[in-house]
Automatic annotation (TrEMBL):
It comes from Pelomonas nitida. The lineage of its organism: Bacteria, Pseudomonadati, Pseudomonadota, Betaproteobacteria, Burkholderiales. This is Thiol-disulfide oxidoreductase DCC family protein. Pfam families: DCC1-like. InterPro entries: DCC1-like, DCC1_Trx, Thioredoxin-like_sf. It comes from the Bacteria. SUPFAM superfamilies: Thioredoxin-like (SSF52833).
Length: 140
């Protein structure tokens, strides 16, 4: 990666169907390789090595920037979408009015993600297949 195109590391809950689906979308659009994906639900994952708790990582999406700083929640989503070329979504999430709504909506969704019915995920087109952290994807 060049200095103009840094790699961001996305830490996501691979045990969560909604999270897997969203990461699958990002993996498929990660053609420039600007994102590296780490499934924090995998056995042997060590959050303490990153200086954060597993509980914090499980509570909200985390993106680590090349300088080691963290983006959490909506800012993490914004960065991941921008890195995969979804600049409209990223800019929309940064708009003050949308941001005021997006943050509590994201928090509610993150807190209730395991209770969302599968039919809702399919209806929202979020059930998009399965992708490995290396970006290899397959349909279900």
């Amino acid at each position: 990666m060049t200095a103009n195109n840094p790699t961001l590391t996305v830490y996501y809950d691979g045990a969560c169907p909604l999270c897997r689906s969203e990461m699958g979308l990002l993996m498929r659009h990660n053609t420039a390789g600007r994102l590296r994906f780490v499934d924090i639900a995998q056995p042997g994952f060590d959050a303490a090595a990153l200086g954060v708790t597993q509980a914090a990582l499980m509570a909200r999406l985390h993106v680590q920037q090349p300088d080691g700083s963290w983006l959490v929640g909506v800012p993490a989503v914004q960065a991941a979408y921008a890195a995969t070329g979804h600049h409209r979504i990223s800019r929309l999430l940064a708009h003050p009015t949308v941001a005021r709504l997006a943050r509590p909506a994201y928090d509610w969704l993150a807190d209730h993600r395991y209770r969302l019915p599968r039919w809702l995920l399919k209806a929202a087109h979020l059930h998009t297949g399965s992708c490995a952290p290396d970006g290899a994807c397959r349909s279900r």
